[in-house]
């Protein structure tokens, strides 16, 4: 399969989702499906209110790894294009943290590829997250068992 467009950006600034969607559709050629996922910094899963999330990464290494997983998705599904924009730095509760868009000729391929890529981003992408709470406490985030279980299902489909 030959994916038409891949864009991977790791940045501190926010992004313009409608602009990114337009860019991806133009670069993808003829498609019948666009799946978009935007993740937000959650503040509601904790005993104390989350004040901020701090993200670190390895420049160039992280982007290469995300591109690698997009190519892996392209081997499994017929996708035409993919955009991943992941934010780093200090983000406040409810800030957008990740934008993932996948185009394909058919919706099933777009949905499954998007889930596959997002599961990778949640479990294996080289990002380090530190949570800061209103009570003054902070802690590095460890992978959740539920995220690892979701990602494991793709290994069973090889």
Explain what you see.
- Helix 2 packs antiparallel against helix 3 (107-123) and helix 3 (107-123) packs across helix 4.
- 35% of the residues lie in helices and 35% in strands.
- It is built from four helices and eight strands; from the N terminus they run E-H-E-E-H-E-E-E-H-E-E-H.
- The two termini are 17 Å apart.
- A hairpin with a 4-residue loop joins strand 7 (127-133) and strand 8 (138-140).
- It has 158 residues and is α+β, with helices and mostly antiparallel strands.
- The radius of gyration is 16 Å and the shape is globular.
- It has a four-stranded mixed β-sheet with strand order 1-4-6-2, with helices on both faces. Strands 5-3-7-8 form a four-stranded antiparallel β-sheet, with no helix packed on it.
- The protein has a single domain (5-155), classed as Molybdopterin biosynthesis MoaE subunit (Aldehyde Oxidoreductase, domain 3, Alpha-Beta Complex).
- It has helices spanning 17-28, 61-76, 107-123, 145-155; strands at 5-11, 33-40, 50-57, 79-87, 89-92, 96-104, 127-133, 138-140.
